[in-house]
Please model this.
Amino acid sequence: MLVWAVATVVVSVAALVVVAQEALNTRTGQELDQSAMESVYAREDAVAQLLSVLGYISILTTGVALLVCVGLALLRHRYAAAAAAALVVAGANVTTQVLKGQVLERPDYGNLAINSLPSGHTTVVASIVLAALLVAPRSLRHLVVGLGTVAVTFTGASTIVAGWHRPSDVLAALAVSLAWGSAAVVALAVRRRAAFSRDLASVTAVSLLGSLVAGVALVALGVRPLGGWSGFADAAVVLGLVGLACSLTVAWFSRLASVHAA
Model:
């Protein structure tokens, strides 16, 4: 399991580097990313509802969610898991803000030259979900996977529909969160060796269902292809790939973290 956790850290960092390079530093990447963001559309009232939901994602709500995760772990005397959960949330969100504000730049290739990669909102929600999986008891893991995937997918897709972020920003946020989550699992694995659980298929099914629920919710709120039925395929591909990425991130991390579940 330690090998898989280390490999996940390496792959996540590599994915982040590739996404950032292609989406920011190439003209083709910028154009594809911008086109993907513009392929989905929502009515003004729907966008207002999405923005109101995104508005609840703040430093305060992040802190409260983290305190809940840490508190539940401490109540069950799982001190290492509590520390790991705090590491994931703090590390992922600090990394995202430093990358977005200090490290990464977006050359001007005719699109908006202000960098928004990685997505801060997606990082917040994804890191909280991964932290919850580190401390959740075994009996609640599938519930956390399902609800967590709904939350991550809905947040990531909403930032795209609202025009706040491009798809690459969401993918980069998932990579940052998964890298820190896997690093926490590495630390736990060094402390206590354990074998993989065998629930990857079931948690993947649950996470895919979670992404589907999030997609249905977005459609119900009024999210539509920009070009009507002629743009349906493009919009479906964009939202489908975002949902798939969110599902696989949560499902794979659930398997990594489940070896320490109690």
About this structure: Residues 2-258 form one domain. The chain has one domain: 2-258. The first strand starts at residue 40 and ends at 42. The two ends are 17 Å apart (CA to CA).
